[in-house]
Write a structure and sequence with these properties.
This protein is an alpha+beta fold. It has a single domain, classed as DD-peptidase/beta-lactamase superfamily (Beta-lactamase). It has 8 helices and 13 strands. The protein has a 6-stranded antiparallel beta sheet with strand order 2-1-13-12-11-10, sandwiched between helices. Strands 3-7-6 form a 3-stranded antiparallel beta sheet. Helix 2 packs parallel to helix 4 and helix 2 crosses helix 7. The protein is globular.
Amino acid sequence: MNTLFSKTTKAVQNTYETLNCSGGSLIIYHQNQLAVEQYWGKQSNKEDAKNIQPHTKFHLASCRKTYVGFAVAYAVMNGYIDSIDDDITKHLPIDKQHPLYKGTTIRHLLTHTHGLKLHNDGVERVFKAGEDWGYQGINIDILSEILQFTTKKTIAQIVKEEVFIPLQFKETGWYNQFDDSFVEVIRPESQPHWTAPINIDGSGMNMYASTREFAKWGLLHLNQGMLDGQQVIDPLIIQLATSFQSPVLMNPDLPDNGFLWFVKNSPAQRSEIGEFVPDGSYQILGYTTVTLLVIPQENIVAVRAFNSFGNPEGYNYLRDVKDFGNNIMLDIKQAIGV
């Protein structure tokens, strides 16, 4: 175990032992050097399950939204979308329009301030766009439709062409067929096993990645589109996706967002980023508790991955994910004697 990040490693192992999961992993890059690579447990609860390995693919859940945000930033930088302050009705086909969409911008979708929600009878408006914050999956559905209409490509096609192929990613993608390199998402005994959608256009919750490739995705952001000395992605796309984009909200404790990333721009109480983590950092958390944190000020990329689904009773996910970043900062401060 790397002694520099001993507190963080122990904390992540404790989270692994707390969650309803069978396996976990942790990778930390510091100053672009691999500092920690740790794996725990097995890919499922089955007796013959394989150990968690470097190529094991974890379910990303909402962490996939970093790729959706990238696709939107790509569309903006390449002129397919004029402005994220455009009303979403400007970039949707007639058959995808809804009366409640009017007054909602792409910025609202990207920062969870759109106020829309899906229910059994269709779409409802929970609050006026730009006046509150709410985490609802409808924004991904609409962004997917906007991208297909404006670029004539799916999210998955954009990401494959712009990211997976140039970076030679072989362990990341949207999948509808699985082999023995995938974890089984562990749900409470009272619930059925996780089933992924058949659709692989990038709009669904069926994205998986190995911890090592997800960490490389973070490194690509830390280094403004460069990886292994090569400029792979336009740095302006990275900057756009990871910079503060939220509208001014009445409640200062609501989270700050970039292009679906959570960004550290204020001491907002409902932020998922730790109190000790410096401004300018950005993070994403999935329902499987997979987390990617980038701290540019300290040149750190950290990924933790588990195969849980949801939170066991008594587990405070917000406190736990905040402490993921806090422990990293405490380890850094201890190392320099602060």
